[in-house]
Amino acid sequence: MGHAARGLSNRTVIDLIGDVHGCGQSLGRLLRKLGYEYRDGAYRHSERHAVFIGDLMDRGPRVRLACQIARAMVEAGNATWILGNHEIDVMGLVLGDGIEPYLDHTKRRLGKAAATFNSIPGPELLSLCQWLQDCPLWLEQADFRAVHACWDDHAVARIRTVAPDGIIARQHFGQLYRSGELQRAVSRLVRGPSLPLPNGQSMVSRDGTARKSFRVAFWLDEPDTLGDLVFQPDPLPPGVAEQPLNGTIRAGLPSYASNQPHLFFGHYWRRGRPAPLAENVMCLDYSAVLREKLVAYRHRPGQALIADQFEWVDAAPEWT
Ligand SMILES: [Mn+2]
Fold first, then answer.
1. Which segments of the chain belong to CATH 3.60.21.10?
2. Three-class SS of residue 215?
């Protein structure tokens, strides 16, 4: 049995928590602000269930603490940990198939995973990655869904064939690291859709990485141009935003209609004051590891998605 949804019913009040990225001290402060108390080795709340929306690992100063807090809460039946792209990459580096890691340590990815490898001792990281194999890629309740980056019905249907409740059966896990249908479906959920820049152009993003593609929104009603679709902190190169969408681009993108259940995700490096993206769509990543905010949304079953249900802490004190 996985760690999917113990202690959770369709009546439970939920605290959804955005990308922590190693900001373990901020996570403790946010949980206390939300009314959780630290008892018997875990943060607990008598009436609420926390949902970590993925990417607790990598980048920040206290990866080990962040992971310890989240794991203890899941084991106490007080939380669900949804896998993000950073968890999946670290699991690929650590677990392997018994002979070699699924991912090559020497590739660019270890750069981002270095904070995790430096923070968590080897045996503990191995145990954590094995344990994470029982965590789900999504959480679906009567009136909401939570996933790291994107809900895509086709990708979810493909993944359900090996993971009815979103937890990938162990014998299929290696497929997440070999190109194929399952790998593409999981990537869609944890990385979200992106589009290639026209005419083979590339751009350099804020973290210095050269990219040939850009992240796009998937919940818009009627986007007309590439500029309507872009959903990332970095602006498009000159002239790209004005280009109209053609039918091929439209057909390749997932959609999320306003009559579907509330959808919560992280992943997208938002800044500023937390607010819904649509009446049923909410991103909870407010760039804690860039010394911005670690954000939670308090969801009560049956409640409309509204702007006064956010709580957050300033992540900057993590570095003082
Ligand atoms: Mn992410």
1. 13-189+257-319
2. strand
Residue pLDDT, tens place only, 24-74: 999 999 999 999 999 999 999 999 999 999 999 999 999 999 999 999 999
What distance in angstroms lies between residue 40's CA and the mean position of ligand 1's atoms?
31
Residue 2: which of 169, 161, 159 has the closest Cα?
169
Report whether 299 contacts 309 (CB < 8 A).
Answer: yes
CA atoms lying within 13 Å on the CB side of residue 107: 9
CA distance 292 to 270: 9
Kind of pairing between the strands at 37-39 and 203-204: unpaired
Look up residue 134 and give its two tokens: 């029982």
Centre of ligand 1 to C-alpha 57, Å, is 10
**pTM for the structure as a whole:** 0.94
* CATH topology classification for 13-189+257-319: Purple Acid Phosphatase; chain A, domain 2 (3.60.21)
Q: How far is the CA of 159 from the centre of ligand 1 (A)?
A: 19
Residues of the chain by 3-state class (helix, strand, coil), percent to 5: 35, 20, 50
